[in-house]
């Protein structure tokens, strides 16, 4: 019952949080919900219903339980609406340049280091917000409009517009950031900030982006789970004062956070004298102790992701439970030796549970109160209550009740991947223990061999059972995790984590002993990092280590059904597993008919177009990748994101890659792709020295390639002219196969630019349906360059070289792939007046 209640309530809350903007509620209702009156009424109804269930038996019990479940669902729906409304009241829609006092309740997420170029990130609560103007020496801030001030007079004495209130900015939480690579001012004072401090700052506050990145990361959801309402760039930092706690709980949290900051400062001493390997071993050591991952660099995180052991960097329930059991054992030993009479008043198990709950709660608060640690604390409390009151409730029901309590306290917790991974991992361990609970007898070698087999079996069970959820949450799963976790989990659990916790416990009284223990832990981690780097990157780097989903949401649903049937065998017979298994096989089977697919590949880098051409015929599926950049600034993770996107599209071999822009920015990208995905042919615009692998052919006007299904011809690209404006390579792609699908972004972004065209010269047609009855093929022309000179030269040469001209092909649907930088489509629309225009960049 508890399982299905949790599934229903969590689904309802997720739906409400996802579509809360669509609820048409009046301000009166929203105010009533926000005041909490509805919650009190709902709680009263819930308590009455629970009492009714306890008192009534017989045939009415089922009705009462159903009524109670319905009331709980209504109550949780109201709680989700309250949380969404409370958050939305503080969200921003415009940019603001303000001066404010920023209170630091927690430790920062990053360290401001001009030497290493690392950025400072800190969650802060604003107060005393006032209007401000950007300093004259601040890069890129003078041109940003401040909606709170009159830009015409450029003075802070002007009152804000009537529709914007500065009071709305007081009390909001922002993610402050400062990058030493993009700021002329020295903001080293940020490193002196510690939890509990209040700093006078000038901030550029920006709304949270609601778009999902190309890698699948949703910044809006991530910031909402941390209750952060906006981003803020630090322009200036002034005086620092100390905040006075308003309650004992606030003072306790600040004290614990300041201790975390003290440990980070201790680890950061002589940081720049360490080698990269030593520094990252120390950073992981700190992360395993306090949950502070600010010192771990991107390469180390990527290595842990590749090895499939990223979960070991987080503070898990094992950390909390080990420390609680260690402190409980020490204190009980003291009581056994010196105060045995205490057991006459309080049972020994209750003292143990009280110590464990208190220790776990303090350690969870100390490490940032992440989901796995919080779950462990609540589970200990629940186990204590169940044993104390002798409640007839199963462990699975206790787990679901704890999950519901956490959702009630914070509905946005359902958006955290750690919530689902933590609870489902515990559920899997419970189910595995039920199936594998048996006594093992024999000698030491026999027991060791049996335990090893059990460990391997457990890791395989967890890997495959968690596979659907992991792929859905992260888009990919490292297959090395199946192997690395077998020894890494044992190494961390038996050696590294205990050493760290013992060192942290004695740091206050014996710092030298703690340093010795941390050095031992760092040495073990450094050896582990070296082994992973040598094995997975250097020796096995050419092997594809990622497992991607070959199916969509329907496949995920079927996988979850299979896992649910395995975990809950009493619900339905196991023979029912054949139904989702057969359906999953049918979904995974290739079912493409002959034709062409044109797929736009999203990217976080602006001024970049990349699309994938899939050709399906009797010989199989062939893939062509077309890339073009118009002054784009490629991010560090761009290549990895592009490779992941290609894998998700089912690409294991590229028949061709064509880089249409003449710059050399994309050449290293293609070389990196070649290491993972074989490339058969490579065209590159511009003049460049050939790479060792893959070798490229210069993309020049007039060159062509074709097979039975596809013909590609370069319309432009004149490398003999020393001008990159005319070296851009535009293409004409012709196929006799029908166009099956065009997956492109909306043309709304280009509508304003297209409206500026001279409608008398070229009337743009409306998009045509794919492959009308009289058009069985497709004729595509790319227009990804932004230089008018390119098409002017092409138009001039068409008179002398008719082979470069573009003519409508009978029975083929004409398409033009344009960009915002190439809005003048008249040179081609004159040749193909019936063409449908698609943008290929945002």
Q: What is the topological layout?
A:
Blueprint: H1 2-18, H2 27-35, H3 37-55, H4 60-88, E1 96-103, E2 120-131, E3 173-178, E4 197-206, H5 219-225, E5 230-242, H6 248-267, H7 276-290, H8 298-307, H9 317-338, H10 348-366, H11 371-389, H12 395-409, H13 417-436, H14 444-474, E6 476-478, H15 481-505, H16 511-539, E7 546-548, H17 553-567, H18 578-588, E8 595-600, E9 608-617, E10 620-629, H19 638-648, E11 656-659, H20 667-676, E12 682-684, E13 697-698, E14 704-706, E15 711-714, E16 731-735, E17 739-743, H21 751-755, E18 777-783, H22 788-800, E19 812-818, H23 826-829, E20 836-839
Helix pairs in contact: 1-4, 1-12, 3-4, 6-7, 7-15, 7-16, 8-16, 9-10, 9-11, 9-15, 10-11, 11-12, 12-13, 13-14, 14-15, 14-17, 15-16, 17-18
